[in-house]
Every structure is written in structure tokens, then in C-alpha cells.
Amino acid sequence: MAYAGVAPERTTFYEQGTTDKPTGLKSWLLSTDHKRIGIMYLTAMMFFFAIAVSLGLLIRLELLTSGPTLPFVNQRIYNSFFTLHGVIMIFLFVVPGLPSVFGNFFLPLQLGAEDVSFPRLNLFSFYLYMTGAVLALVSIVMPGGSPDTGWTFYVPYSYETGPAAIMAGLAAFVLGFSSILTGLNFVTTIHRMRAKGMGFFKMPLFTWSLYATAWIQVLATPVIGITLMLVLAERFLQVGVFNPALGGDPVLYQHLFWMYSHPAVYVMVLPAMGVVSDMLATFCHRTIFGYKAIALSSMSIAVVGYLVWGHHMFTTGISPTSAKIFSLLTFFVAVPTGMKIFNWVATMYKASIELKTPMLYTLAFIFQFSIGGLTGLPLAALSTDIQLHDTYFVLGHFHYVAFGGIVFAFFGGLYYWYPKMFGRMYDERQGVIGFLLQFIGFNLLYFPMFMLGLKGMPRRYYDYLPEYESLHALSTYGSWILAAGLLLMAWNFLRSLGKGEEAPDNPWEGTTLEWDTTSPPPLLNFDKEIVVTRGPYDYPEEETR
Ligand code: HEM
Ligand SMILES: [Cu+2]
User: Fold this and answer.
1) Hey, what domains does the chain have and what are their CATH numbers?
2) What pLDDT digit, counting tens, does each position of 497-533 carry?
3) Which of 59, 100, 123, 308 could form a disulfide linkage to 41, CB 3.0–4.6 angstroms apart?
4) What are the Cα distances from residue 268, in Å, to 72, 143, 159, 293?
5) In this structure, which ligand is nearest to the CA of 409?
């Protein structure tokens, strides 16, 4: 079924090189094989995700009752909890997430290539990621206490508090370079390593989403790098940039911070949308509706996404004219996003959908990301945002997009590609139960946050009035159900590594190239040269069910 043939003229490379997989820890830590680098990112990220989830659960536990709940938590510690929770989740998990794990493992496979363009640079990017991660963890134990500024490190407070905020800023700076170099590697790989016959409009949508994402990684990430350098220069060289006491402007910091951090949300979500498109075509067993439109909508989201950062600053005193412009541009983003959702639903229309675990996550993504997107509209409108800014409504909104969307797509992708990555099948029944616990827990945890926000509950508060207690309690119970689902999923994945059934090459009858090689793939990915003759989701008519 795969849309590729053999080109006899290029067999020499396979005869030369050995395809035996090296073993031992060193062969992993020094491996330039994109598949191993992807798995090393996955291992590190699951560890950091576990830390950040634990912090989230602790925050929820403290918020179970009005008044102090946990004896070891006070205001200062509570502020550190949400700061570290946000920093680790954003910079160590969701920003690198899908591109570094699944992009690394599957981009060359989807292109019919042996590896990325710069394998050694790829390994270097991984070690930059690990260096940044260690710096972030070091910031927890700094004198004066761990960072407590919120994940946005707003000045001037991030000057007044201890040195930990600077260390965390340095961590973000180093992590930024890992992201830039990964983006550079992916842009070059997509331009230079596509198999014969694979024009841009024969690339899978996951690959398209990585292409749009890579351009943001390369062009937007330097802004946060420069901003953090300016913070250091001001702190240690006393040059006035952001600090009013030195003639600087704190609002300028917010402009620069969000000039990166808003496009960064598309670094997070575009690959998630890409994996959702691939999974949808596979489990609907049909060509995706509006392939070209979906591919180009990723590019247009990437472009428009640069122009909306001011919607985070409607209450900072920016001019009404600029606020109106940022508001209007933010509504524009809804157009290509809405188009994707329309095409996904159209693909499912009258399809015989195979409801395997990855497809359940795909459906949850579409449902929860839509709620996240729709609740973004009142935040983009000036009149309502003035009321809702910095309340629990914002928390609900971005957890629906970041967790309900991106992280659910990440887990769906992990279930989808697990057989290809590890050569084993996971347990389907445990997969479904784990999903249901996560889905119910997630909505119980975050939906009450919208109501809390509409009632005026501010975010980043250690305590609250008794009238908010019932909704907070509901939200906390939800976090426990969610945690149970996450634990069952972790157990399923870890146990199946050794005990899972052997995986066939193409368990889901997928049509993209990664399913056209063994599970797991050989060292050089394919034992034949690939020539592409059809679109990624094209089924010969009679094969469509
Ligand atoms: C079990 C999972 C999680 C729980 C229980 C949780 C809970 C929370 C709560 C209660 C807050 C608000 C703290 C406050 O304002 O007082 C918060 C903030 C935040 N969460 Fe989560 N969350 C979880 C997962 C995630 C995920 C997956 C992401 C990212 C993808 C995320 C990103 C953030 C960010 C960026 C903040 C803002 C931190 C700040 O104010 O600086 N969270 N979370
Ligand atoms: Cu934004």
C-alpha cells in the first residue's frame, strides 16, 4: 500500500555500511542516530513532565480548601510551585515536546531519508537541552529560594527577588539555542533530504507542521535570547533597558517576552495539529479532506502568529489603537485554525472510524482544543479581556489548549507510534481506560476554572474567599482522576516495552512512509531506496473502506 518504489541506481550506500545496531550506554549517549536522539528526548521529557505534574497536583492540593491547607506550603513556596510548574511544563516539555521527540524520530522516516541533515548538530542540540534542564533544576536550590516570579519572569519583580530567577532565565536562554538548532536542522532536512518524487505537496501533514514550526523556532526564539541577555546586562552592568529606576521601561520587557512566547505557542501546537491530521487519516482509512488547505493553514498560522503578541498586554496601558489592532489580528488566527477543524470533521463525515486509543486522543484533541480556542475569543476582545485578564478563566483557556490540546496529541502520538518506535504493542484495554480517566479528570479539573474566572477569582493567589471553595474542590478531585489516568498510561508503556506483543510493520494500515519499514526501523531506516509516486494519504480507490 505504501506510495513508494525502488530506484535501482542508489543501492551502493547500503552495501557499504553495516546496519548492526550498536549496544551499550555509550552507544546511546554518543549516538547521532535521529531515532535514538528522539528516544533520549522522550526519556528526559517524561521525567520533567512527572516533576511538573507533581507540582501541579501539589498546587491543587493546597487549593482544596480556602485558607492554608498543606502545613509545609506558605505564600512564598506556593509562588515557587506555580513558577516551576509553568517553567518546566513550557520550556522543558511542551515547547521541545513533539518536534524533539516525534520530529526527530519520524521526520527522516516520513521523508524516506536515512537521517536529518546534520546528525552531530542534532546530538549537540540534545545536550544543550540537557544543559538548560540542569540549569533550571539548579535554580530550585539557589540561595534566597527557588524562582517565584511566575513563568513569565516579569520585571521589575524578577530583579527584586533572589538570584534564582536569573538562573532560570539562563536556563531558558540555553534551551532556546537547542530549539533554534533543531529548527535549522529540520528546515534543511525538509529541503534537502526528501525522497525522489516527493515534492512538497506529497509530504505528510505532520512533516508540513514541523516545517512551519521550524521556521518559528529559527526566527522567533532569538528574541527571547536577546531579551534575557538584556536582563542580565541590566542586572550586572546597570544599563537601563527595563528597570524604571535606571530609565528603563518594564512594558518593553513584556513586548519582547511575548514577541517570542506567543509564536512559541505555535511551536507547541502546530506539530500537535500535524500528528492529529496523520492519525485522523489513518483511523478513518481515507484520504484527508482538504490536504493542501491544511498544509498551507499551518504556514499561515505561523505567519499571523507573529503579529498578535500584544493581546497579552491589553491591561498594561498600551495605546487603544495598538490594542484594537492586536485584537483584530488575533481573531485572524481563528480562520486557518477553524479551517483545520472543519477539514478534520469533514474527513470523519461518513467514515468508518477505527476507535483505537490514538483515535480517542485525536477526538479529545479536537473537542478540547476547540474549547480552548473558543475561550480564547473573549480574551482577544478588549471589553471582556479587561475583566478576565489574570483570572482563572485564563488558566482554564491555556490548559485547554496546552494540556487538552497539545499534551493529549502528544500522548495520542505516543500510542500511535509506540509500535514503530519500540517494536512492541501496548495494551489496548489499559490504553482505553487510561484515556477515559484522563479525559474525565482533565475536564473536571479545568472546566470549573472558567466559572471561577467569570466569578472573578484571580490567578497566582495562595488563598481565596470561601465562596470559591466548591469549584476549587471539584477541580482538585479532577486532578486526582487525571493523575490516576496518567499513572495507568505510564504503567502500560513501561510494561509493554518488555511484555508487549511483537509489533507488525504496519499495525494501523497507515499510508505514510514510516509504516513502510520494520518496527523498529533498521539503523538506516529503509533497506531500499524510496521513490514516491502518490500523495501521503492517497488510497487506490478499491482499497478505501
Ligand atoms: C496534572 C496536571 C496539571 C495541573 C494539576 C495543573 C494545575 C495548575 C494550576 C492550579 C495553576 C494555577 C496556579 C495559580 O495561578 O495560582 C497552573 C498554572 C500553570 N500551568 Fe498547569 N497544571 C497541570 C498541567 C499543565 C500543563 C500540561 C501545562 C503546559 C502545557 C501547564 C502549564 C501551566 C502554566 C504555564 C501555568 C502558569 C504558571 C504561572 O502563573 O506562572 N500546566 N497549573
Ligand atoms: Cu498569545
Assistant:
1) 35-532 (1.20.210.10)
2) 999 999 999 999 999 999 999 999 999 999 989 999 9
3) 100
4) 34, 33, 29, 20
5) 1
